[in-house]
Every structure is written in structure tokens, then in C-alpha cells.
Amino acid sequence: MRPIEIITQLLELIVALAAAPLFVGWINQCRAWLQNRSAPSLWLPYRGIRKLFHKDAVIAEGASRLFRLAPYIVFGAMVVAAGIIPSMGTRLPLTQVADAIALVGLLATARVFMSLAAMDTGTAFGTLGARREMMVGFLAEPALLMVIFVASLISATTALPAITEHLATQTLGLYPSLAFTAVAFLMVLLAENARIPVDNPATHLELTMIHEAMLLEYSARHLALMEWAAALKLFNYACIGFALFIPWGVSTRGSAPVALLASIPVLAAKLAVAGALLAVLETVSAKLRVFRAPEFLATAFLFAVLGLLVHLLLRV
Amino acid sequence: MTALLHSPLDACLTLLALWGLIGLAGLLRPTSLRYVGRTLFPLGALCGVALAVVALTSLNAPPERSVLIVGLPDLPMHLRRDALSSLFLFLLGSASAGISVFAAGYFRRGHGTSAGLLCLQYHIFLASMGFVLLADDAYAFMVAWETMALSSYFLVTTQHGLGEIRRAGFLYLLIAHVGALAILLAFGVMQGGSWQFTFDAMRAAHLTPASASAAFLLALFGFGAKAGLVPLHVWLPEAHPAAPSPVSALMSGVMLKTAVYGVLRVSFDLLGEPQSWWGIAALSLGLFSALYGVVFAAAQTDMKRLLAWSSIENVGIIFTGLGLAVVFHGVGMSALAALALIAVLYHTLNHSFMKSLLFCGTGAVLHSTGERNLGRLGGLIRHMPWVAWLTLIGALSLAGLPPLNGFVSEWLLLQAFLFAHQVPQTFVNMLLPLGAAVVALAAALAAYVMVKFYGVIFLGQPREATLVRAHDANVLERIGLVWLALGCITLGLFPAQIVGALRTVVRQVAHVDLPNPAAPWWLLEPLPGRLASYSGLVFFAAVTVVVLLAIFGVRLFYHQRVRHAAPWDCGFVRLDPRMQDSAEGFGQPIRHIFEPFFAMNRELPSPFDRAPRYRVFIGDRIWQRLYEPLGSLVQRVADTFAVLQQGRIATYLLYSFVTLVTLLAVVL
To answer: Which residue of chain B comes nearest to A53, CA vs CA?
Structure first.
């Protein structure tokens, strides 16, 4: 392992850990502007997490060890995932041991542990949230896998850095297959991160919630980790999107070490635009009924499979 | 003794004979649980370990043969051990070792058949599976195959007092025999007019493409019936819940794999050059089984039935990989064929460990609660921590989550699918990505099923008051579970080594191979230059390090205060365990989304019902559309011929006389 690889790896992890809550804060701010509200501080998510760490943890009676372990596993999975996705540089040693399929597996691991923890306390909401989360997950996961497959087929590899490098060095042109999969990916991103139209992150309305229902029993440091992990998940998904669809501005294998520094503002710009777009999307769309969520996700899955077929038909 | 060490085949035969002897020893004191359970079953487990060791060390050894001087005159039994046999013998030995130790603690009084007889049936079952793997002529194979079917039939019907179990056993026996008939016919086609039934003769026979295809399809039907391939799966969800848990584990974990062995043996070894359209057939059946199985698993409310359906899914995935391998082999893409075959063998190994672990786990739950119905379980992680945590490993493996073993074989299979786009036929080219989509969907659904299975049984509040008295597994049961869980973990963490071992098998059986790896020992890189690599060990280490850092970081910087309070009840007066999702409730989204799969019958209460009941019955459309008409047809035909059946000896003698006269008339 060369020093540049270690530096890139650590930088990715630190930036992800530090910037993930900021990204959430930025989306919330954009949303507030669009909805004509006065916006909360950009730093509110950080304050929330700090406040939670200082509180006393309240654990439901009868909760097992799994319940207390799950936030750490979910958080750990999201951090490792952040280390696999080439958001700033492609010289990541971790990507050698875990490719894009392992990344999807990692995200699935986090989801399964979160659902199991939600079922552990045995409340009505916990199990309801777990069931709905798994319902969203079982369609979103193959859709994400298909999205990644299209990019893998184009670049003949499943290693994310190689995919990013390959796509970044191609001549700028419209890939019909990538256009289909981009739509699919956007739908998966919305569903997996509990955004409108599948779930509403700003509500605790019991009939509609998915993600919040699972976290209902968590408090203090456990909740802080879960919130942080959720922010990291959103950040990771955004970075997967960048890696597949706008791979430019990333420091690649041949580039000078200084390029790594230059990639930080590029990532910031991408995140700023993506966050604003996400806020617009969330503002203009309405929440779906829970029973319509499978249709939404099945559409995403079909789009991704269509992208795959288009790629094989047109060879681009 | 030294001779045994030089010949792994003889060592294997000795161990199989020992199993037989252990079984017979059970008859000495058939009612003594201490003797049978505490002595014979652990001895059987030791034999299993020894078999696994012998098989593993002989994996690289050249094939060897031997002839047993038993059997019909002029028909001695030919035996042969090659890498494929060794691999499956390893699977049989290692998985059965865990199951036998578990069984040693499992069988108690009041299980229908007496312990000694059970011990005989169990060990004969084990030994016959070993002989299936070693047989080198059709005659020996069929004898072993039938012994396997019969001994497992008796094991399934251990509690023969219950009509439901006798029915399940009958269905199993029926389909096993229809399958065996097809296999027999397949051997008949494969001897190719030489009338020599040794496998060597079949390897040498030159079949026309049409008769080779016929042989393959017959074998696919016959072995598919044993493996539980849709639409021949109907016996599985009946027989697995009926059998005692260690027997279900053995059937699902090991016996189904003998069918996989059979298909591999026939298509790659005996027939030699598989045609690529056979692969399409196996692939389509496999994909359909995978999806059908997992969707039904999600809707089950009986924990063992759920696992049985999940076995159908996994068999589907195995056959999908097999079909893929045949397709690649047929078009001469040998590296990809090797990759797909390795994925098949890997998944076969994985499934035998994880499914045995889960079946044994349900056995422990069944013992301590007396319940198989998910709707009456819950919260057992607090009362049976050993079983719960070990079962969690199995559940996560089956859900295909890294860094456990289920993920590795799925990863390999998806890699094989991903590089399939260079297949020359356009039609196949279009079909394969859809296959990848179905595999991905089935894998994600498996995670759904496992969350349901684990969450409803072990997590939450106990749904019945009696569950608080549930006790953990005893020591022997724990050892068995730990053994199987360790198998899952080892297979997950060291994929490169296992793929290395499987390459030997694939090279010998199908004459295809992966390129030599350029990666370090801890990294799995099946196709160098493709930039696709995975390392279970490092991956696990990375996640563990981050999790530990998070735990210690939180400890270091913040306080450790914890309060316990009642869960949030939303302002209602009391929180009832029945407010949790039931098993039906958890499966509802799947029933809703995949409604056309099910034959559903709902009983909805009307608003005026005094005692409203909501019931939903889920049926298998294949049973209704295929088996019921077939059954009634057979019944009608039988009724027609029943006219002959008079019940008087004089009439029957007349029949014989008329037949004799007719035959004489024909001959003269």
C-alpha cells in the first residue's frame, strides 16, 4: 500500500463522517426555502447528534443485546461503505476486498440489522417499520444491483474505482442504458433513504412512517449513531450516483497527489447541487400510500433491467 | 491400517461400514436413550468427522476404483472415488457430524419409533448417501439410491401415529420413486446399446445428440424430483415439517445435494459434452424454482415449512448456476463455465451448513416450546440465547449477507452472470441478464424471509405465556449448532482457499479451469484482469474495527448511563404481545405483490359477526392445477381396472390360466 492510497482512504472516511450531517442540513435548508419557511441552521444535525450523545440512554424493558449492538453495526457498515465508494479518489485499498456487489451486500446487512433491532422490542410500530423497510428493501436492493450491473458491463469490472475511471475517461456522450439506470437509481435513492414519495423523514405520522418507526425505541447515543448512520447512508447513495453518472473531477490512478485536494471542492459542488435537486424533488412530489411503494420500486427495478437490455442490444 | 491410509476409497468404505455397524448396534438396546443417544450418535459424528478429513485430504488424489464382491451373480458393485465424490463425501461427513451431535441430544422418549430403530435408520441413511457418491455402475447407484429413499422415508414417518405424517411420508415416497424411475431410464439410455451398466461403459458410449438429450432430460427430471425443483417440489414442504428436526436437517442439508451430485455426474462426466440448450432448460427451471420457493417461504407460518420452501429456492439457485455452467461449457467459454460450476459447488456446500444449522435451531425451539407455528413463538432470544445467537449466524448466511458464506456463492454466481454477455447466441444473451435480475430479486427476498423467520421466533415479546419457561439447548445440541455455525463462518471468511479446492473438482469433472490466481492468499479474484475481487476476512476485519472503534469511542468520550423503561406504547393503556406483527402480517406485502403466485382463500369477517375471524389459506397453484388432476386421472384409470379385482381365488386362477393359454398361443 502506497502512502497516497492510505491518505485517500482516510480522507474519504473522514470527509464522509464529517460531511454527511452537513449534507442533510443542506437539504433541509433548501427544502425550507422552497416551502417558504425560515430555514434551520445548517449545523442543526450536528447539534442534534451531540445533544443525543450526552443524554441518558433509555432502553426498552426486555430488549436483548441485539438491540444495543445494532446501532454500532449499522453505523460501522455505513462507514465501511463510505470507504468503498470513490467519491474523491479512486486509489482506495478497501475497494480491493469489497467490490460493488459487496457494497450492496453491506447496505443489506445494515438494513437487516436495523429491521431485526426494530423487531426486538416487540412493539407494534417496531415490527411494522421492520416489515415495511424489508418490503422497500427487497425491491430496492435488486434494482440497485441492476444499476451497478449496467455500469459494470460497460466497464467490464465490478470494482467501483475501475468503473468510475472507465466512465470518466470515455468520450462525453449519451449512454441510453445509463439514462435508464439513472432514473432507476434516483428512485432507489429516494426509497432507500426514506425520502418522499416513499417515506417522509420529517414526520412521525404513524400510518406512513417506515424509517422513523424502526427508530422509535432508540434514544441517546444509540439514536445518535442511527441518525448519523442514516445521514451517512444518504451521503453514500449520493456518492454512488456521482461515481456512476457524473464521475468527473475524481482524482484517478494516474493523477498527481494534488488532484486529491482539488477533488474536495468538486465533491462539495456536486453535493450542493444534488442536495438542492433532492429538495426540489421532495417539494414537488407527494407521498405515496405505503401500498403504492412496491409499484414505485418495481418501476425502478424494471427501468434498471431495461437499461441492462438496452446496453446489450445497442452495445453502448 | 497403513493400507487404509494409502487408499482413501477403502478408508471411506470402512467408515461407511462403521456407520452401518453403529446403526446395527442400536438394535442391541433399542430403548436405552443413554446408550443410543449418548454413545452411538456421537460415535457416528466421529465417523463423519473422519470421513470429512479423509475426503478432504483425498481431494487432490487421482481417481481410484474398486470392485465389491457383493450383489447379483456376474454383477459386482463397481466403486470409484474421484474429486467430485470426495467433495460431496466431505459435505456428507462434515455436515452430518454436526447434525449427529445435535441429534444425540435431541431424541427423547415418546418420538414414535424407538431410539434404537431410529439409530439404525439414521445411520443406514448416512451410509447409503455415501454409497450413492461412490457408486460407479448403475446397479450399485440404484441400490444405494433406493436405500437412501427408503431409510429416509422411515425417518420421515418417525411419528407414524399421526395421519398427517403418514400422508407426508407417502407423498415423499411416491415422488422419490417416480424420480428413481426416471433415473433408471436415464441410465438405460446412456448405456447406448452396449448393455453394460458400468459408468465406464456410459462414458465410452457414443450417443446421438437426440438420445443424449433424452438422457439428460430424464436425469434432470429424476434428480430434480429428489432436489425439489419446481414443479416436482411438492413433497418438500410436507416431508420436512413431518420429520424430526435432525432428519429434516440431514434431508435438506445433505440428501438434496446428492441430487446435485447426480446431475453433475450425469451431465459433465457420463454424457461428456453437454449441449448448451440443456443449460437453458436447467437455468429456466432453476430461476423459476428460486423465485417460486422464496415467495412461498415468505408466506409461510410454520417455521419448518418456511425453511423447506427456502430449500426449494436454494436448489433453484444451484440449478441456475448449473444451467449457466452448461451454457458456457456448450459454447466453449471454459473459464466462465468453471466459475459458474464453482459457484454451484460453493453454494451446495454453503447451503448444507446453513440449512442444517437453521433446521437444528428450529429443532431446539420445537423441543423447548412444543410449537412449530410462528404465531405462537416470539422473544426466545431472552430464554434460549445459545440457540438464538447461533441461529442468527445461519439466518444471516441464508440471507446472503457478507461476510458470511451465503454471500460468497451469490457473488460468484453474479460474477458469472455479469460476464455472460459474450455468449454468441443473441437469444441467450438477452435471457441471461434477466436471469441475473431474478437471482438478485430472489436473494433480496431471502433476506426478507430470514428477517421474518428470525424476528418472529426469537425477537419481540413472547406471543404465548408458556414461552417464558422455554429452556436453552443442552450441551450436545449446542456443540452441534456451534459446529455448523463454524462451518458457515469458515466458508465465508476463506473464500480464496475454498475456491482453490473447488478448482480441483471442476478441473477433473468438467475439464474446465479458472486461470491461476495472481492475488495474495487472502484475496479472492476468480478471473484475474477483470478487477473483481473480494476478501471475506479483510472485509470482516474492516467492519469489526469500525464497530469496535465506535463502541470504544462512545465509551471514551461519553458516559455509559442506561435506564430501563417500558417501551413506548403510543398512549394506549397496555402494550399487548399480540400487537406485534404476526407471521401472516409479516408476509402480507409479499402475498400482496406476488398475488398471482398463490391460490389464496380468504375468510373475511362481516361487520355484524359476533366473533369476527379473519383467516387466509394459501395454496400452491401447481398442486391444484397439476397434481390434483393427475391424481384423479390415476384414480379413474385404477377404478377402470378394479373391475378385474374380484377377491376370489378361483377368478385369479382363471386369469392366470387364460394368460398362459394366450401366451402359448402366441409362442406356438
So the answer is: B558
Q: Give bridge partners of residue B534 from the DSSP assignment.
A: B524
What is the domain partition of chain A in residue ranges?
3-314
Provide the 10 A C-beta neighbour count for residue B571: 5
What confidence tens digit (pLDDT) does each residue in B160-173 have?
888 889 999 999 99
Q: What is the DSSP letter of A202?
A: T
CB-CB under 8 Å, A156 with B534: no
Going by pLDDT thresholds of 50, 70 and 90, the confidence category of residue B177 is: very high
Contact A262, A111 (CB under 8 A): no
Cα–Cα distance for residue pair A144/A165, rounded to 1 Å: 20
Pick the residue from chain B with its C-alpha nearest to A129.
B581
DSSP H stretches of helix in chain A: 3-34, 44-54, 65-84, 94-97, 100-120, 124-155, 160-169, 176-192, 211-215, 220-245, 258-284, 293-314
Residue of chain B minimizing CA distance to A304? B437
Distance CA A188, CA A179 (A): 14
Q: Is B532's CB within 8 Å of A312's CB?
A: no
- Residue B81: phi and psi, rounded to 5, are -120, 120
pLDDT beyond 80 at B417: yes
> What is the rounded CA–CA span in Å between residue A174 and residue A196?
28
Alpha-carbon dihedral sign for residues B139, B145, B147, B153: negative
Q: Which residues of A touch B579 (CB under 8 A)?
A: 123-124
Q: Minimal Cα distance from A80: which residue of B?
A: B543
Among A177, A258, A193, residue whose Cα is nearest residue A231:
A193
Q: Is the peptide bond before B517 cis (omega within 30 degrees of 0)?
A: no
Distance between CA B321 and CA B345 in Å, rounded?
Answer: 9
Q: How many CB pairs under 8 A join A and B?
A: 249
Question: Residues B444, B221, B253, B53: is their CA dihedral positive or negative?
Answer: negative
Task: Among A138, A159, A313, select the one facing B448 at the smallest CB separation.
Answer: A138
Q: How many helices and strands, by DSSP H and E, does chain B display?
A: 26, 5
Question: Rounded to whole angstroms, how far apart are CA atoms B319 and B226?
Answer: 13
User: Could you tell me which residue, B615 or B497, shows the higher pLDDT?
Assistant: B497
Task: Specify the residue for cell string 413506548.
Answer: B568
Closest listed residue to residue A298, CA positions, set A140, A105, A108 = A140
C-alpha cell at B217: 432430460
Q: Which residues is B78 bridged to in the sheet? A: B67
| Cross-strand bridge partners of residue B615 | B603
What is the value of ipTM here, to two decimals? 0.94
Provide mean pLDDT across the span B467-493: 90
Q: Any residues with CB less than 8 A from the CB of B118 and at least 6 apart, and which?
A: B26, B36, B107, B111, B155, B158
Length in residues, chain B: 668
Partner-chain contact A59 B558, CB within 8 Å = no
Handedness of CA B186, B190, B193, B195 (dihedral sign): negative
Tell me whether residue B133 is exposed, middle or buried, using C-beta atoms within 10 angstroms of its C-beta: 0 to 12, 13 to 18, 19 or more. buried
Per residue in A65-106, pLDDT (tens digit) is 999 999 999 999 999 999 999 988 888 888 888 889 999 999
Q: Which of A59, A132, A134 is facing B564, going by the closest CB pair?
A: A59
From the list A96, A141, A149, which residue is nearest B436 (CB)? A149
The partner residue sitting opposite B568, judged by closest CB among A115, A217, A221, is: A217
